[in-house]
Recover the amino acids of this structure.
DNA sequence: TATTAACGGACCAAATCGGTCCGATTTAGG
DNA sequence: CCTAAATCGGACCGATTTGGTCCGTTAATA
């Protein structure tokens, strides 16, 4: 299974690209070329980012986008949430009222702890951190060979 | 966005239900009734769990399913992976070869660290733990009011 | 006033997902 | 044996979501 939608993935790429040149104001078309992503899709992604306030948009000639905050102060979690919406593991996490099992489902309360962990993992890394070279990423390779029977969480 | 598919969610519910009566061998129909889930879907879920070796299946009259291991030794991560497949945040996490951006995409290596965190969160909790009362779930409620501008990771 | 570029939304094709159903196979019991 | 009970392994469909494109409108610059 893949957790992030393609759009959210693009969102992180685009936002990280903007973070690489903080002062510059760029058009959606330029970002598309530089990231080698389809331009119509990049425009859609930037619209979503602008709508959530992560980037500021300037219309008209000479307009374009730029980060609304410093790259150290925007987390991957925010970018993902801007495009895919608020993050929850299960149906009842996001749409609490629509779950008829609320009263008798024993597993439900336990998702909260896992949810926190996922959220914190996504919140802990900033766009600025995404720009640092891969060599500095902590524990990128598995310390030991993965157990064959264990589910894999690959890079 | 919702991370787990409905089927995977059902899988955890069903597996947890089996964990509640470790010695019993039950049919898919019985599990469906007791969990109040549609029986055809429960059958599908149990098939997937059996295929991955998490539960053992006995065919024929008097057959049914039971956990293959003790409830303390099966993690939520395994149940989810059995139904939704191996877990990865991005496309390039799961289908490494299909990503044309591999060579120049700066963000790619950084997903590994986040991936680990998500995987560990899902691996840390066992089916047995899912059965413990909600009052013992650590830090279920937020210690402080959530920041309005921060993405939410609700229960 | 013309050009540039974001905005807002509609729109479509494709893929995925939830859910059901059926024939084949296996086991237990009378 | 023969029948009933169950899983197994797929196929299958309808609904929803998703990825991606396009267009008219608005706003800003020169």
């Amino acid at each position: 299974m893949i957790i992030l939608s393609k759009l959210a993935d693009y969102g992180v790429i685009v936002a990280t690209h903007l973070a690489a040149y903080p002062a510059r104001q760029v058009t959606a078309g330029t970002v598309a070329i530089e990231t080698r992503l389809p331009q119509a899709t990049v425009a859609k992604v930037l619209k979503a980012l602008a709508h959530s306030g992560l980037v500021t948009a300037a219309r008209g000639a000479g307009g374009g986008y730029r980060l609304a905050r410093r790259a150290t102060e925007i987390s991957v979690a925010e970018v993902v949430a801007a495009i895919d919406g608020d993050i929850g593991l299960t149906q009842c996490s996001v749409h609490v009222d629509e779950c008829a099992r609320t009263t008798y489902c024993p597993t439900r309360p336990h998702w909260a702890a896992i949810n926190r962990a996922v959220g914190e993992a996504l919140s802990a890394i900033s766009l600025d951190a995404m720009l640092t070279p891969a060599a500095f990423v902590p524990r990128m390779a598995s310390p030991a060979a993965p157990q064959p029977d264990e589910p894999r969480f690959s890079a």
User: Anything to note?
Assistant: Residues 102 and 108 of chain B are 7 Å apart (CA to CA). Chain B touches chain A through 69 residues (CB under 8 Å).
